[in-house]
Batch of 2 targets.
Target 1
Amino acid sequence: MKEAQSTDFFTKHKKSIIISTIIILVVALLGALYLTGSLETILKDLGIGRDEYYAETVENDNPSCSFKRIEYPENAFSIGVPNGWYYAVESGTVSIMEDETNTTAVLIYTAKSQPELTKEDFLNTFSKILKETTEEGGGTFEMQEIQKIEELEDEIYADVIAQINEYDIKGKMHVSKTKDFVTFKVYWAPAEIFEEREGFLKEISGCFARTKVLTDDILTAKPKEEVKEETPEGFKKYKGKYFQLDKATGYTISEEKEGFIQLVGPDQRTLLSYMYTTELKGDYTPKFWVEETFAEVKEITDLALTDETVLPSQVLGYSVQEFNLSAKMEGTPILGKITVGIYQPPYSAGGTKYASAYGFGQMTVAENWDNVKDTLQKMQDSFDFVDSSMIRKNTLLPIVEPTENTRASITVQSSAYHKGLITKSNEKWVEGMRGYETLSSPSTGQTYQVPINSWSLYGPEGSGYYRLLEDGKFEKLQ
């Protein structure tokens, strides 16, 4: 009886079951084709472009980035910069540098190009610009064979061999092109450490992100102005020949010369000093350098360094440590704090390795330490060089933030680089990092200077620039 009912059910619903099965198979097939990229071909055959398929989608880039993010809303992009590194935007190029020597750096450039310009054309053109730029500075630059990335059909890369400032350099250049928009990235380091640093440099370049969702705040954003820090109450700005800092009331400068400065407290028993040297030979650790330096001061005995603290550093070869200090000065017990940085890059120029070191010393008589330590630390934290372009400043101070540099990479500063970009961009592309297009809103008629970096491949009306409306929808700027 039950078997007869079952047979009767399948007989009655045979047509519906077959149709449902076919639908399930078609959906599964479409899903599989989508995952393999074949859906784009099917949509094209049906007259449905990929732009229309993603009709409701306009999204900002959102790469994973472990470094501090620096925003440029007026130009619709952001970058990630390691602590202690320099960054600058000049000649339409983002420079992110470990130091001013240009031996370890990342450059990023964007452009809106003519449709006929291929990825290979762009990479070859930029290679020629960098070759002329490097040769102008007395170096060499050679691009190796262009290679494709299988999983990224819009991207190609090439290895680089160069010589910059007597250093043998290795690097990689990447170009990605989606329709008319091109992103160029190049990173390099001394050849002997490139493999070790490549992942780190690749992550820096991968932090670059474009803002494609144009809010009214972004469309009206202006370049950020430098904000002057206020001097704390009880302090005054001091600017000498070599150094500057917030100086506490009652403290005087007892000595200032290149590489050294000392401040004395109103009690004449409290000291804050700073010194640096760039002429070290041999291997050093922060503690060894402190002990060696204090050994030359005959008035100080019974030196003890305790509570060692390692400060974070993302500059290769740069180590910073702090110590609590106790000693006797001419028999009187003193307490204090020492901050020391040693920079020994694991590469050499012409076979010669060098090292630099700096030290901050805070000291006073033991019974007075708790009363003055906060004041001494505030002065130390405000410390800087008068010369803002001081070479290797990031390894002569305990810098814990990325620093916006007044000058870009020496590659970007080159007249050959600047001339090459102007010549090529006038012929084949419009620079994106600082470029704009004048467009207006169809709904309000308002005109905007729209940053080229905000161009989106996908949107409700295909490729273009999209303003976000109050209802969450998008309008294409015309």
Note: The radius of gyration is 30 Å.
Target 2
Amino acid sequence: MNNQNNSQTPGYAYVFAIGAIILAVILLPIIWKIFKGVVKICLILAVVFCACYGAYVLFSGKRR
């Protein structure tokens, strides 16, 4: 019984991972079409935040 349970658990995880990947591949284009504007805004905000944070770290490092 223990051997069967041990062999089944990774198998289920593997199947679940494959299913999740397939779902992601199927849903990504749909989600991208619907939320393209939102995604672009989020990406721009993320880039701006990273740039500001990087500049802050550089300037604070130079001041010290």
Note: The first helix runs from residue 2 to 34.
